[in-house]
Amino acid sequence: MKSNTGHRNDQGRVAEEGEEVCGEQLGAMENARKRCQAPSTSKSLMATEDDPYKIDPLIALIDMDCFYVQVELRLEPEWRGKPAIVVQYKTRHKGGGIIALSYEARERGVKRFHHADDAREVCPEVKVFVVPELHGKADLTRYRDAGAEVIRVMKKHFHCVERASVDEAFVDLTKEVKQLLPRYLSKELKLTPEALGSTCIAESHSVEAWLDQLYLKLEEDPEAFVASSVQLNNFALAIGAVLVNDLRQDIINVTEFHCSGGISYSKTLSKLACGLNKPRKQTVLPGNAVGPLFNKTNIIDVRMLGGKLGRSIIENLCISTMGELCKVEVPKLRQYFSEETARWLASLAVGIDNEPVQERDLPKSIGCSKNFLGKEALSTREQVKKWMEHFVSELSVRLKKDQAENNRSASLLTVSITYVKDPFKIKSGQSCSRCAPMTSYDNEAMVYDAFMVADRLLTSLGYRNGRYHYAVINLGISASKMRDGGFTASRIDSYFRGQKKKEVDDSQIFPGNKYSELKVKGRDASKIQLGKAKEVRERKGSITKYLNQASPRKDAQGGQASHHQQQKVRTEHMESKSDTETRLGQLLQATRSQRMGKVRRLFPARFTDEGGTRLGGRQRRRVPQ
DNA sequence: ATTTTGACGCT
DNA sequence: AGCGTCAAA
Which of A366, A459, A489, A563 is the most core-located residue (most Cβ within 10 A)? Predict the structure, then answer.
């Protein structure tokens, strides 16, 4: 039985018009290259005389296993091997909420979304670590710093590393693997199970068998092997697995932290692969395993489909797996989603996301926030100011460290507020944010600016007898728009030039303060009717804006929530479409390159049976030009 | 009533 | 500029 049965059976007829497709594709790739800071991905698709091997992009995701727990266990190693959890705010609701749990704790029935008290009930011996508190709030510095340690090791191995969160990062392995390819093909280096270490192969029981199959094909006909993108891609995948295994071992050596990894052709596939064998394992996801895997993958479990969009796919199309989504034709998708969304989904349904790995190992913003629920809700100026001071105390330390270590300074200070009428009858609060230029890391200046924007907003919503009419249930500040270097005179000058006279009386709350002549930027909330604006959005905006405007189908939405689109950029560098009939044809144009004037691939070879371990089918498909 | 982050797209 | 969505511990 074929390993990809049921997955894309319409691949027979694909693109046929040659030059046109090539032309479009080169244009699309050019766009992709411009956006990608590390152009290795698109370059890798180009076969040249110097570089005869053409492989697909190779992307890994490294994800630390129950990271916060590991960070705590490194500090208190005596708890290693025992069930352990990390909770926030021990003294609050039910002993604090779990934000990380060890695999030992999971085995004993502790669940995410449990609280510390629940965990102790099912597992009395569980070790409970509590997130440090500083300035009256949870302080995650310890985990951020540990995450930075890991990123440093990764940067030592690879140029193109994208910090995706505090504990995970994507790596573009393409360039490194390409460089090694000739040495492995020539047998100077050998792919062995030992070299692959803790590697698993998705949809395969044995790494050994998978490697054996690979080498069997190579021995059989070396020329055919290097000419077959299926074989070459599998081979590259195996090399990638070696590199990632080495990286993971180095991370252990340097940081003591264990992690899992996924190695495949896109962020989406790598992420999915990474989750297949946790903890302390890495998973290779070859092209021919994507179909079978997708047949049992819930749509919700795929990156970017875990929210409203995924739910609306499931409801509208009455399907639940990626395999089913793959069989839905683009026109059908267009009934429910915009043209761009439809195409993006069609790509995603075969594992293609066209998202380059951005070379970025530092966060783009630094912030802190806190919820104030129920009776904790803030309703006086003094309370808000006090918390701004707390936030700034934490933030300024983090900002100054960032400035010293990374030679950059934030230029924008943003205050975020969620407020409600009655904090005891919370449905969903109104969220809003206001910003001010950031021209120094002076605590007093930051407190003043942050408080002023917050107070202006809240006061405009109603203020009487020392209380705001609305209660603040979430408050946060964040620094962003990082610029190289420190603060310069010109930046400060331009800030002062931009100031107008202040309009809010701050003489009592900031007696005699040195900023009293300044006024922060920002709109007057009283004039913009926040509540109403949001209401209008909910009524019409979010529904219509994602619909295909050309074919009105409002009924199909059934009042569903919005379908958030982050795919616009991505679809941009997919082909702009010729007249290919099948969806498959549309997909491959953007994702495959052709060797001009030589072999032209009909479809992404990695998704075919060729090279599958037990198929013994045809070697490769070619279309004579 | 998990909470605290962070990135990014849309308008 | 400000809001919403998605995601990770």
Answer: A563
Residue whose CA is minimally distant from B4 C1': A369
Based on the domain organization, do A48 and A90 belong to the same domain?
no
Question: How many angstroms is C1' of B3 away from CA of A585?
Answer: 45
Residue A512 lies in a domain: yes
**pLDDT recorded at residue A47:** 57
A427-CA/C6-C1' distance, Å: 21
My answer on whether omega of the bond before A279 falls inside 30° of 0, hence cis, is yes
DSSP states of A144-204 as a string? HHHHHHHHHHHHHH-S-EEEEETTEEEEE-HHHHHHHHHHHHTTSS---HHHH-SEEETT-
| Same domain flag for A344 and A225 | yes
Q: Which nucleotide is nearest to A436 (CA to C1')?
A: C1
Higher pLDDT, A256 or A426: A256
A59-68, A153-162, A564-573: which range is least confident on average? A564-573
CATH at residue A189: 3.30.70
Of the residues A82, A113, A136, which one is the last residue of a structural domain?
A136
Last residue within a domain, chosen from A487, A512, A528: A487
For A436-456, the pLDDT digits (tens) are 999 999 999 999 999 999 999
Q: Where are the alpha helices (DSSP H) in A3-127?
A: 18-35, 40-44, 67-75, 103-107, 116-122
Note whether residue A360 is domain-resident: no
Nucleotides, chain B, CB distance < 7 Å: 1-11
With respect to residue A179, please indicate whether it lies within any of the assigned structural domains. yes
* Residue at minimum CA to C1' distance from nucleotide C4: A564
Task: Residue A30: give the domain boundaries.
Answer: 11-58+173-348
pLDDT tens digits, residue range A202-256?
A: 999 999 999 999 999 999 999 999 999 999 999 999 999 999 999 999 999 999 9
Determine the distance between A386 (CA) and B3 (C1') in angstroms: 20
Query: A262 CA to B5 C1', in Å?
Result: 24
Distance between CA A613 and CA A2 in Å, rounded?
A: 10
Interatomic separation, CA of residue A88 and C1' of nucleotide B4, rounded (Å): 10
Q: What is the CATH number of the domain that holds A419?
A: 3.30.1490.100
Residue A439 and residue A533 in one domain: no
Q: What pLDDT does A28 receive?
A: 27
Exposed/middle/buried for A534, CB within 10 Å: 0-12, 13-18, 19+? middle
Q: Is residue A369 part of a domain?
A: no
- CA torsion through residues A543, A547, A552, A557, sign: negative
